[in-house]
Design goal:
Length: about 170
Amino acid sequence: MVSAVLRNTQSLWVILATFVVAALLLVLPLPGWLDYYRPEWMALVLIYWVMALPHRVGLISAWVLGFFVDVLEDSLLGLNGLVLALVAYMALSLYRRLRMFTMLQQSSTVFILVGLHQLVSFWVLTVSNQNTSPNLMFLVSAFSSALVWPLVFYLLRYLRRSFNVV
């Protein structure tokens, strides 16, 4: 009984640590021209944990993470909560299929999910008159996220198996 509680606590810390690393990568300073190519690290880590442990990471986790990202990026409060909850909902509805997909199919799905994330963010910022660059370069981030998905997937799977996260 005690070992199960300790294992669950350790699992929680591993999951939280991966989200902290994603937050650090999110605020890592990049040159302006390279900022469009920044993968959506928080969405990638969220998709992985929703796919791997849908009973532990879900909509509420995504909403809380989104508010954390809003504060971290000084963006419209609730925007990232909305889009990350949307991504988590889509990933939750597809998690059984995602597990069976090849890596190319998973990357394509990640491209669609992150593209949806970017599209909703772009739309909300445009409607609220806070969008400073009305072009489609925001979709480049979805492409770079799909490119780094295999690396994120295998790294997080290695961590999950090493620390026996359940």
